[in-house]
Amino acid sequence: MLLLGQTAWADIDHVKMSANLQKDGGLAAQRGVPMVLMVSAEECPYCMVMESDYLVPMLRNRAYDSMVLIRKIHLDSFDEIIDFDGKEIAPTDLSQRYGVWVTPTLLFLNSEGEEVQKRMVGLGVRDFVSDFIDQSIAAATKFIQ
Fold it and tell me: What pTM does this model have?
């Protein structure tokens, strides 16, 4: 039994790319949790650090399953995604709508895609990243309940 859990844990090596924010928002609503949406870029080294050092460990910690839904988009992708309203949108247009110009940016959203907590722009001081994310998730959770 323990090996199954370790295998599942080891299989998590990246944040799931969102192709359908409406579906992801519905999942967040069903769970009663906020969504952290990382806006990243394909060749962004700081995005890779944010994902591997902070977000992936959160995904591996099953306690976060009941606290937050984590997804990402690449603002430089040419593949359209489904927005929270069910319409197709280019990631660049979505990023512009949120006013995201720096990657990585973490958006703390409710199930409709509204920002409910102050965003995290850039990687910041590494000693404080985990605490900032945890505090933002807690504040976003209070806001949506």
Answer: 0.91
